[in-house]
Amino acid sequence: NLQLDSLHLETMENGIEDIEDIIGLQDVDAANRFNNKSQVVPRVRKKKEKKIVSEEEKENSPSSREDDTCSTAGGNLVPGSGVVFVNTWGCAHNSSDSEYMAGQLAAQGYTITEKKEMADLWLLNSCTVKNPAEEHFKNEVKKGLDADKKVVVAGCVPQGKQNSDYLKGLSMIGVQQIDRVVEVVEETLKGNSVKMFGTKRAEGKKIGGARLDLPKIRRNPLVEIIAINTGCLNQCTYCKTKHARGELGSYPPEEIVARAVQSFQEGVCEIWLTSEDTGAYGRDIGSSLPELLWQLVEVIPEGCRLRLGMTNPPYILDHLEEMSKILNHDRVYSFLHVPVQAGSDAVLSDMKREYTCAQFEEVVNYLKARVPGITIITDIICGFPTETDEDFQETMALVKKHKFPSLFINQFFPRPGTPAANMKRIPTQIVKSRTKELSEFFHTYKPYQDRLGQIYSVLVTETSHDGNYYVGHNEFYEQVLVPKKPELMGKMFKVKIVDSCKFSMTGQLLDTSQVVRPAPSDPLAKGQVSGLAQSVLPHKLGFNFKI
Q1: Which SS3 state, helix, strand or coil, does residue 150 take?
Q2: If you write DSSP's letter for every residue of 395-444 in order, what string do you get?
Q3: What integer is the mean pLDDT of 247-265?
Q4: Which end of the chain, N or C, is less surrounded by CB atoms within 10 Å?
Q5: What confidence score (pLDDT) does residue 163 get?
Q6: Positive or negative, the Cα torsion across 158, 161, 165, 169?
Q7: Is residue 380 a contact partner of residue 340, using CB atoms and an 8 Å limit?
């Protein structure tokens, strides 16, 4: 069997892969949170004596090793001439933010490189969901400084914890200020420390964030990630993300639709809608998720598809009938990520998840009954402080009942500043034992073992992690490995399933199948900036998406 290590399982020791879930927290009043913060706080370092640099030294300097990026007198770079390395941790929303920041920098002349040792500046976009993700980020900050690089930090960690010792003196970009990245980078390369925070508002109300029509460099030229809203309506006791993303702020439907149209014109064939909670979309602007989705399916070309991001149970409950119709649409994947986190009502109450296990199952059962073959995946937190052995067995019973094809299993990590961090922790050995028990059960069943001989239409957008196959998805967003033939990338065609494993199936192209590019045009080149003239040369794309 061929195992594709991808969208699934056990993220205890790694970052999160496409998981826009663990959110919420008791938060200060969103309207007042940022009032005491200045938009720009430059801290000018003492000027060093100018050093006369020989021509030989100039040629060997890091900023002179790539294309036309050269130093000016005094050691400062000409604006737009630097080399930037971008490293990203976390969810699809973070990935989208990094795409926008890289695109704006490239549009201003900066080179985005994958060779971090050659970069003048490291732009590190962080995740605060769990301790390991922040530790990886912290270690990368240290490596950058030790390598004498300029470092700019972005994402949820600096937004929620600006005063951390290891961030002192660094330039920072808030999660709603990614459209200021060029200013921050330019000032940092001059030797200044700049902080850009604040909440974007229109008519006094929080909005989704930076404009969606900004230049960007897609990590995958075939996939457009669109953040439809930021923040959430929850107050979960274990999560740090709300400190950074704050209260709900939705983008207008017309702005989202316009971004989708532009993406298809640039050769994208798959759209991912992302946010901290897609189900809450529109509640702050008098709209709703179904209203947005019905507008989007009108502009999706035949054969292209939309994948909906994570939604918490309370908000999707209000739209089950409409959502079942949308998830049956041939241009929308029959796929939904609904995190339950625990199978015990007592634990859910202590987490302040605002739903019961029965309500979660209502979502699952309703959609399974009305959307044939739908893929529903979920998340579990093992070892929440108030979880008893009986509570954990209720969680095990829930997983055994539904046998979710994909399960994100996370050990509880106390995040500083959250109510759960003040709760007495369960002994580590018990948490590890519960995590192991759940993980072992997950590996006892194979969701695709009865699929041999099935025929599916698949849309290919990725390469497998081992580099030996292309990866397509059928209408249920199930992974299908296909031969690595260049003419198949970005195309839709029919396959027959000839093998399967725990995480994927293997498909054989049918001789009678047409191979069709569903997008109305060819995709942009890898590293090419979206929204600019097609003649703009691709940059050396240097995104490291730690997922």
Answers
A1: strand
A2: HHHHHHHH--SSEEEEE--PPTTSGGGGSPPPPHHHHHHHHHHHHHHHTT
A3: 97
A4: N
A5: 86
A6: positive
A7: yes
**Residue 75 scores a pLDDT above 50:** no
| Three-class SS state of 345 | helix
**Cα(20)–Cα(323) distance, rounded to whole angstroms?**
19
CA 36 to CA 476: how far, in whole Å? 47
Residue 505 CA, distance from chain mean position: 25
CA neighbor of 450 nearest in space, from 484, 478, 492: 478
Tokens linked to 40: 């720009």
Which of 159, 300, 326 is closest to 226 using CA atoms? 300
Residues 354, 363: contact at Cβ < 8 Å?
no
For the ranges 3-7, 212-216, 465-469, which has the lowest average pLDDT? 3-7
Q: Which residues contact 469 (CB under 8 A, 6 or more apart)?
A: 2, 4, 463, 481, 482, 483, 484, 506
Which tokens hold the place of 255?
Answer: 């702005």
Token pair, residue 537, equals 């040369």
Q: Angle at which helices 389-402 and 357-370 pack, to 10 degrees?
A: 0
pLDDT value for 32: 38
CA dist., res. 252 & res. 96, Å (int): 18
Give residue 531's pLDDT band: very low, low, confident or very high (50, 70, 90). confident
Summarised one tens digit per residue, pLDDT across range 510-523 is 999 999 999 999 99
User: What is the rounded distance in angstroms from the CA atom of residue 130 to the CA atom of residue 547?
Assistant: 12
* DSSP H or E run through 316: helix 313-316
CB-count burial class (<10 Å; 0-12, 13-18, 19+) for 542: buried
Half-sphere exposure at residue 73, Cβ-oriented, CA atoms within 13 angstroms: 1
Tally Cβ neighbours within 10 Å of residue 75. Answer: 16
* Alpha-carbon torsion (347, 353, 359, 362), positive or negative: negative
Containing 226, the helix (H) or strand (E) segment is strand 223-227
**Helices marked H in 443-546:** none
Q: Are 178 and 148 in contact (CB under 8 A)?
A: no
Q: Which is it for strands 192-193 and 229-230: parallel, antiparallel or unpaired?
A: unpaired
Whose tokens are 């508002």? That residue is 201
Exposed (0-12), middle (13-18) or buried (19+): which is 440, by Cβ within 10 Å?
exposed
Kindly report the pTM of this predicted structure.
0.83
Q: Which of 20, 11, 24 is nearest to 351 (CA)?
A: 24
On whether the CB atoms of residues 63 and 150 are closer than 8 A, the answer is: no
With a CB cutoff of 8 Å and minimum separation 6, the contacts of 67 are 111
Do strands 150-155 and 171-173 pair parallel, antiparallel, or not at all (unpaired)? parallel
For range 49-64, the mean pLDDT: 37
Write down the pLDDT at residue 59.
37
